[in-house]
Each structure stands twice: as C-alpha cells, then as structure tokens.
Specification:
The protein is an alpha/beta fold and 377 residues long. It has 16 helices and eleven strands. α10 crosses α11.
Length: 377
C-alpha cells in the first residue's frame, strides 16, 4: 500500500464523525485568568484551517480571549451551536439558512472563504455541461448537505428541477469517486478535498465549480457564525472572536502551505500535508464583512428560487435577521490588517503534479473525508 493511501486511510479513520461533542484544550498556549473564555466549535476538516491558525498564531489571545475547542460530529453541529455547546465557529452559509428560517438562533458575522463545492462528471463519460444532467443519477454525501444544496442551485439555474428531473443517490463522501468509477452514478456533488483528489487522479472533469464559475465564485461559502444567546450576552467577546478568525483567514491566504502543514502537524486533522495544501489552495481565504452579508442574501434568494426555502419566506428579511454587524469588525479594519508572510509557506508550482503522481501510485480512488461534507456510515 502506498504512503499516500496509508495517509488517506488514516484520514478516514480520524474524520468519521461518530462521537459527540468533546471539549479539548488548544494545542498551544496557557491563558491567564484575565482572558475571556470563548468556546470554538470544530470538526477537524481541511477548510477549518483559519481556526487552527488563529489558535496557533495567538490571534485569540491577542484579542483577550482564552480558547476552548469543542470537537463535534457533523450531524449534531448546528444543534450543538444553537443549544450553547460552543459559542462560535465558521461554517457553510447554505447549510444553516434553512434551519435559521425555521428559528435556529445563530447569527453570521463575516465571510471567511469561497470555493468549497463542485459538481463533477467522469472524464470518460458524455456529460459535458450542467444541461446534460437532466434525467441523470447524481451522487451526494447526503440529502440537505452543502454539495446537495449547491447542485440544486446549479441545476435550477440551468432550468432543471432537482426534485423531479434528477435521481439523487447517497454515498459516504469518501466513496463518491468510487461510485462514479463503478457506474453507479453519472455525476457527483462534492467538496474539498474530495474534488481536488478526484481531479488530481484524472477521474473527473468539473461541470460546475464554486471556486471558478460565475456567479458562485464571488460568493462566500463559509462565514463566521455565533450562538445567538452568547452574542446577546457577550457582544464584545463575539466581536473579538470574529476578529481572531478573520486574522486566521488572512494568515491562511498568505501562507496556504504553512497553514496546511500546521493543521496536520498539530494534529487538528489527519491528512497528507501536500493534499491538504492543494485543497486549501482552491479555497479563497479573503475575509470580508460585506462579502459575507451579500453571500447570505444571494444564497437565500437562490435557495428560495430552487424550492429549498419556503415560498412565503421574505429573503431580505431572512438575510437581515441572519447577519449582524459587530463593533470593531469591518472591511475598513480588514484593509488595515497585516499578517506575516512565512518563508516557504506558499504553494509551489509543481504541487499539483506531485499530488497527481501520488494519486496515480495509489491505483484507484482513495477514500478520504470531505472538507465540508459529512461522512455517513
């Protein structure tokens, strides 16, 4: 078994979300009693790099906060946040809008990054465009997951009714590529690092890519989200924690390779540092307050149009209720924020070739847990 497959298999074992939410101390730091306690939720996946970097680089401490990490499984994530199991994190906007519409008490405060999601088809198949997906079988990691929601948006924008004109098939996120290879589906909707891994292995072509295709490429997929009660009782701490996460996002954008390596070496997730770097390089960590607010509006409008929100929902009202502006958290502040550029912390030009070679050496689809999609059992 190749080194790549061994690492990827370890990633599966580490990222299967079978436990509850567990409190754990960050890998670095001991905070003084004068620091304000804040609990940050995480799963242990690629796109959470800004959380890990904010901790390791001391950004929470700079904001007067003592971090307590709370590790959760995907299926209970939004509910644990709403019930106060942790105070703040960042997560996919589309995943949370429907629960917010139904009364979930959480608030978005800023956009973190873009580009999580993809719709892909086999390179040796006859699907070239989204319109070719009418009547086809699409594999997803679960109904209602972000890849499923993104695929529905894309289909609807191309005149295809996802509720009637597509056959949805559910597979564990790490097995979507295998399902495509075996002919069990005609296309897959996935997220990082699954999309990058399949592309690197030469198994798929992108049919729709949130990182590069308009209008999705300009929309933040993940945003900072805060428990509503914590925000009401601790507005300054919520603002400080948001700033720490935005600093973390800026550091990831400046140093993607270093962020990917840090995430693995500090045991926040189990992965191959090079694969993790390649996946992070496809995510645009360009934090923005106004961008996050606009993403809430555009995602809500598109989800309603695709039938994923109630037909009577006031999109503008939902977006206004779901997003809050915090003191000291602004685009003007972000423009003045500078982070260090680490020597050797950037992506090298031959990275994609090295990862592709490792994928080829693994002789098939390698099963890894998805960046933003749940593993199912």
């Amino acid at each position: 078994m190749s080194h790549f497959k061994l690492v990827a298999t370890a990633a599966v074992s580490a990222l299967l979300f079978t436990g509850g939410c567990n409190k754990s101390e960050p890998n670095s730091s001991t905070a003084g009693d004068h620091l304000v306690k804040v609990r940050v939720g995480y799963i242990g996946i690629t796109c959470e790099a800004a959380i890990f970097c904010a901790i390791e680089k001391g950004f929470f401490k700079e904001e007067g906060l003592d971090v307590e990490l709370v590790k959760c499984e995907w299926s209970k994530y939004k509910d644990v946040l709403a019930l106060g199991g942790f105070d703040i994190t960042y997560h996919l906007i589309m995943y949370l809008l429907k629960p917010i519409e139904q009364g979930l008490d959480v608030k978005f405060t800023a956009g973190i990054h873009k580009g999580c999601l993809r719709l892909q088809a086999a390179t040796d198949g006859n699907i070239q465009t989204v319109k070719d997906l009418r009547g086809k079988r699409i594999g997803v990691p679960g109904m209602g997951t972000p890849p499923f929601i993104f695929a529905n948006r894309v289909l609807n924008a191309n005149g295809i009714d996802g509720s009637r004109e597509v056959d949805w098939r559910v597979f564990p996120a790490g097995e979507l590529g295998l399902a495509l290879q075996k002919g069990e589906v005609d296309a897959v909707a996935d997220s990082e690092p699954i999309g990058t891994l399949l592309l690197s292995g030469g198994k798929v072509r992108n049919v729709a890519d949130q990182a590069t295709d308009a209008p999705y490429k300009d929309e933040y997929c993940c945003a900072v989200v805060v428990n509503g009660k914590f925000l009401a009782n601790n507005p300054k701490a919520a603002a400080a924690a948001t700033r720490a996460l935005l600093k973390g996002a800026k550091w990831v954008e400046m140093n993607p390779a270093a962020a990917a390596k840090l995430s693995v070496e500090k045991n926040y997730l189990a992965s191959n540092p090079e694969l993790n770097t390649l996946a992070i390089s496809h995510l645009h960590y360009d934090p923005s307050v106004s961008g996050g607010e606009e993403a809430v509006k555009s995602a809500a409008a598109a989800m309603k149009d695709a039938g994923m929100l109630n037909s009577t929902t006031d999109v503008a009202g939902l977006a206004k209720s779901a997003f809050v502006h915090l003191e000291g958290v602004s685009d003007e502040w972000l423009q003045t924020l500078h982070v260090d550029k680490v020597a050797g912390g950037q992506v090298t030009s031959d990275l994609a070739f090295r990862v592709a070679a490792e994928c080829a050496a693994s002789r098939g689809i390698v099963k890894v847990a998805s960046c933003c999609s749940p593993e199912t059992k």
